[in-house]
């Protein structure tokens, strides 16, 4: 398969879209089967697990992707890099598993959490091993620039996990059943990835000593610094849920988690770019191509901001009718939380590609400082605002932390030698967002909760109780926003043609036919 940035992004984006669709179907069903209190318990446990996996997983994954992507003349480079980080991944996962079991056996878990959480931590010990090697093997495929294989494996994992989790939850196994489903789906992902890797690597190198000529000192340093950086970054996404679980009731955590799931759908495209850019820019940094990096960063930031602002306007405008329909009427408190989270979510979306580009540089000091500053704002804000204001306080603090991230990361990017918003056309995007936002929000408010049934119009069966806004606002909003984006110069027709020319014809032709 011929690989360029567009085809690689297409492979990643299509898989990410499939994952989003799975999540869209999975989340409300799981909420209904578990109930908001159990769903809140699951959210709190997984948030803690994700933080635990940072020192266990993030360094080896980042290091493997960075170094295995570099095409060096050293014989058997890829196989030795995979073996080096595989051993570290195994050791760290084993330590984490033993630590979790010890926390359960010594009563530490029961002292901190409700007694009902104890079985969950036993299952987390098994999930550490399964999740570690699922992500390591898949990210190794990404580092080898086999995105068209690595990302579909993630779709398989997500699909199997969703089906098993819903089945076990429906049978009454609750949160424990969901965790078992995650373990089984992860192990399946490991097996499939290893089968594919054997065609591109020699797994016998797992038993061989790494040659002295390999830059193991630099690799270890990058590994440790990556752990610090990713811990700070992940704290932005997890500390709110952990602290909220300490100070608020289970159903409040459930409402908050429900809102987070929805706003994080806005990260679909930025996450796809992140999965691509680490291995794609490592070589550019190694060869001193900062001009190419700057052009790539600017275009990525502009396209991400354009798309994310459109999605944020639509989600914010439709939240009053969409959230109750999606989660049930009991989820109405999540609407206010969602609105508060949206501005910060947009800030993180724009920053995600830049984080990866700066990370690929290998000089982690500036990246850690910039991310750490935003993490401190987020932590302090959550500690101050959650006790008196609950989920709304968590949302305010989190959106402040999220919003600070792009400001600090722009400074970080300039410090390592590139300007991420050079010619990003921020004024044009701002004008597009302002005027289209007035139209989109105004139309949604005007339609309100009106349904097809209310109008008494004949419609397709099953849509009679669907809010009219959900059918009318998305296409009208898209056309209005797109027209204004072209009119203001936020994006040009030529740029659209350039993108579509690199997209496979079956996907690009329908859109191309509408362009002048």
UniProtKB/TrEMBL annotation:
The chain crosses the membrane at residues 42-64, 85-104, 116-134, 155-173, 179-201, 222-239, 254-270, 303-327, 333-355, 367-386, 392-414, 426-448, 468-493. It is a multi-pass membrane protein. Its main location: membrane. One of its GO terms (cellular component) is plasma membrane. Keywords: Cell membrane, Membrane, Transmembrane, Transmembrane helix. Pfam families: Polysacc_synt (PF01943). It comes from the Archaea. It is found in: Cell membrane. The keyword Transmembrane helix applies. PANTHER family: O-ANTIGEN TRANSPORTER-RELATED, PST FAMILY PREDICTED COLANIC ACID TRANSPORTER. This is Polysaccharide biosynthesis C-terminal domain-containing protein. It comes from Halocatena marina.
